[in-house]
Amino acid sequence: MAIPEQGSSAIAGIGGARSGDLFQILLDGTPRTRAELAVMTGLARSTIAARVDALMDSGLVNAVGEAASSGGRPPSRFAFNPAARVVLAVDLGARHGVIAITDLAGSILARVRADISIDSGPQVVLDLVTKTAHQLFDSIGRNELDLVGIGIGLPGPVEHTSGRPANPPIMPGWHDFDVPEYVRRSFDVPVLVDNDVNIMALGEQRTHWPTHDNLLFIKAATGIGAGIISNGQLQRGALGTAGDLGHVRVARGTDVICRCGNIGCLEALAGAPAIAATLAAQNISAPTSEDLIVLAEHGSPETIAALRQAGRDLGEVLATCVSLLNPSVIVLGGSTATAGDHLLAGVREVVYNRSLPLATAHLSIAGARSADGAGIVGASMMVTQEVLSAEAIESMLVLRASLALSTP
Amino acid sequence: MAIPEQGSSAIAGIGGARSGDLFQILLDGTPRTRAELAVMTGLARSTIAARVDALMDSGLVNAVGEAASSGGRPPSRFAFNPAARVVLAVDLGARHGVIAITDLAGSILARVRADISIDSGPQVVLDLVTKTAHQLFDSIGRNELDLVGIGIGLPGPVEHTSGRPANPPIMPGWHDFDVPEYVRRSFDVPVLVDNDVNIMALGEQRTHWPTHDNLLFIKAATGIGAGIISNGQLQRGALGTAGDLGHVRVARGTDVICRCGNIGCLEALAGAPAIAATLAAQNISAPTSEDLIVLAEHGSPETIAALRQAGRDLGEVLATCVSLLNPSVIVLGGSTATAGDHLLAGVREVVYNRSLPLATAHLSIAGARSADGAGIVGASMMVTQEVLSAEAIESMLVLRASLALSTP
DNA sequence: TTAGTTTGTTCACCACGCGTACAAAGTCCG
DNA sequence: CGGACTTTGTACGCGTGGTGAACAAACTAA
Q: A199, A403, B309, B320: which sits with the fewest CB atoms below 10 Å from its CB?
C-alpha cells in the first residue's frame, strides 16, 4: 500500500525550491534518483520529475544508468553533467599566459601556454587571448555557443566587481581598462576578472581543501602576495588590493632598500630576486626560478639556507596574519615554494613558534598541491560559481522554455 | 486612461519576492507608498496591498501619514516600525557588564550597568543577566513576549555558530559552555553570542560607517583585539579567534616578556598595563584607565609620549593588517584610544608611513564614535540582522496566519 | 461643479505545484 | 515460473497565490 504523500497544502510553495535549487544539490556530482531528490528537497515526486526533465533538456543533467533496486522497479539516476558547457580560463603572468578551455567541473579540455608580455597593453594581450581561444575551440572541435563564461587572472590588483585593473605596477596601460567590455566584443558571455593570486587561492581551496573555509594562500615568487578565503569566500578588500604582502616590513631587514622606496620590505628580503642576489653574493648564479629549483634539488647548502631564511622572513609576516585571520590552512605556492620544502620549513619554524597555541593547534601549513594550473582551475571555478548559481540556472531554464514555446 | 498593468504571465512568480523581501526594502526606515513598493519589487499593486496588510497586522510596519498627492488620491505611506519588538543586548566585560533593552533599530530603551565578575562562572553571571533583564522589562513596562532575540558579547573567543566560548583566557569555567541553551531556559528566543570586540565592530560599522564594507575595528585596553568586517560581514576565522592581535610580535620589544610567555608581544608593549608600567617607572601613578584619561587631558607630557609610542607599536601591526585586508577605515576604540587622540596620532604616523600609497590613499583612521555602548548596539544589531532576515519574517508571518485561522 | 488622475479594493482567471491514481518494471518467495 | 509485493515513472484534478482589470474612493485642477 502506498503511503499517502505529504499533508496540508496550506504551506505549499513556502520552500520555494525551484529548478535552480534542485540543480545546486546535483552540483556535487553525486548521481541521485528522483526519489532521493524528493526527500532532500521536500518537494513532491511529480514536481521533481518535471524539474529533472527541464534540466535534462538543457543538457546540464544527464541520466547515468540505473541504481540497484530495493525491491521494486529500479530507479534511474541523474547527475550533473560537467561536459554540457565549457568555460574559457585565462591566467596571465608578466611574461607569459595560459589560456585553457575547461568543462564546468574545472577539468582542462585544452590548454595553451603562450609568450605574452603583459606590458604590451590590454588590447594587444586580450586580442591574442581571444584569437588563441578561437583556435582552442577549433582544436577540440567544440561549438563556441557552449561557452558560458570567461575567467581571467591578472598579475596585479583588480577591482573585481567592475573587472578593471587598479593601478597595477607591472601592467602599464591597464589601469582602469574595462576588460570585460573589451573581451565581450569577441565572446558575448559573462567575463570575470581577478588578481592571479586570488584565483590560485580559489583553485587550491576548491580542489584540495574543500572542507576548509578559512584558507590563506601565499604566492611567493618575484613578488609575494596572498589570497584570502574567509568563511568560504574570497576577500578582496575595499579596493581589491587585499593580500598585498610584498611590502610589509620585516624586522630583520632594516638596511635593505626595496624597489618601492621603503626599507625592510618582505619582498626585498624574501622575493625571488632577493634570494638570487644573496646567492650571487656567494658566487652562486641562479638568475631564474628554474635554476633555484635545480640548485635546491641538488642539495646546495647555500641555496637551502637562503630559502629557509626567506621562509623565516615570510613566516614572521604570516604569524601576524594567523593571529588576525585565524585560518585553518596556509598554502604556499609560487616558484620559491616549489624549490623543495625549505621555504615551507622556514615558515613553519617561525609561525608555530610565534603564534598562540589556540590559533595554531588546528593550523596546517602545506605546499600547493596543484603544481601547475591552479590559476586556470581557479579562473574556471570563479566563473562556474557565478554561472551555475541557482538564480542563473533558473533564468536560463526559463529562457529556454520561452524559446521552445515560440518555435514549436 | 489607466495604463494596462504588466504583460505576459508566463514569467509570473519568477521574482519570488515574498513578504519577507518586501520587508527588507522597508528596513531602511524610509516611508514608502504601496505604488512605490510595487515598482520597486515588480509585483502587482494588488499583491503589494496584501503583503503590506500582513506586515501591518504583525505590527512590524506602520502607516505613517499620507504623502502629497500628485494630482489624484493621496497615498498613505508605510514604514518599518522599530518599536514593534525589542531585543535584549548584553555586553559583558571582565569586571562589569551592561544589560540593555533596545528596539529593532538598536535604540536603547533601558540599560543597566552592573558589577559582574566574569570569573564567577557562566551560571552565576547569566543568572544575574536574566534577573536584571526581567527587572528591565518591568521598569519600562513592556511585555516580555515582545522579545525577539538576545545578543551577548563576551570578553574572549567564542565559536559564534554554537555560542560556546573557546578556551577564553580570562573566563574560567566558561570553556565550551552552551550559553544559548542556558539562557533559553529563561527566555525562549534565539540567543546569539560573540566576542565583545566583534560586537563593537558591528555596532560601529552599522551606526557610523554604513557605506564602508571593509572596516577594521581595534579595541585597545588591557588587551588588544580587532574586529574584522570584510565585504560587509564579520570575519571570525576558523575557530572564532580571528582578530587576536594582542600577541603579535613587535620589533621594538625584543626584551619585553609577555604574560603569554613569548617576547615582544604587542600587548606587553601597548596594552594598558604596559603603559601604566612605563609611567610608573617615571614616578607617575596611573593604575586605572580613568587615571590615564585624566592625565592625558591635563597634558602630562610623559603620558602623551607613552600613548603616542603605544600608538606607534600598534601602528606597526596595523600596517601589516592594512596590506593584508585593504580596509577603507580603521576605527580605534577601547579605553587607551579614548585618552585623547595621542594613540590615534601614533597609529596614523606609522601606518601612513609604512603602507603602500595604493592601500592608504582612501584609508581613514578614526576614533570610535559611539563613545559608550557600541557593544550594546552591536549586540542588538547582531540579533536584528538574523531575526529580521527575509526568511525569518516570512516564517513569522506564515505562523501568524495559521494561528489566526485556527482561532477565528 | 466637473473632468481628470491616482490610490485602494475586489474579483475572475491562470499557472504552478501538490497529491493521488495508475501503469511499468523490477524483486522475492512459494 | 508465476503471483504478490514494492518502488519508480507518468497523467490528471485540485487548491493556492499572484496577476491584471474593473470599480470605488479621494483628491487636484480648471
A: A403
